[in-house]
Amino acid sequence: MAFVGEYTHSIDAKNRLFIPAKFREQLGENFYITRKMNKTCLALYSEEKMQQITDNINAFPDSEVSEIKEFLYSKTVYATPDSNGRVCLSSSVIAYAGITRNAVIIGAGDHVQIWSEEQWAEQESKRDLEKMRQRLAALGL
Fold first, then answer.
1. Element (H, E) at 46
2. Gap between the Cα atoms of 79 and 29, Å rounded
């Protein structure tokens, strides 16, 4: 099942963010929150998906992936939402994603992403739709 949709929620004074029920159901009771490596946003992965990522990284010699491991795992949080569906984000991951007040939580197919509202708007405005159409056509979609 793919993660789809877009939601905007505020981070409260205790750095808690509400994760939409639809996403919580798909992610499972516990999941991982980490920095996205190729974008300035956060990624939420199910336990199963995080294990796949770990297995893929561990297939390479440590000499090739030690920096990736440090970046990925040092700030990763094993999260369990509270009874209100909120997770606590660390100050460092909030700063990495540039979130000041509002966060946009989006489905990204095999995972969920959390963006600052401003950076998400900028990301959306920069999309090259024609280039995406060409890529999709090349894939036969």
1. strand 42-46
2. 9
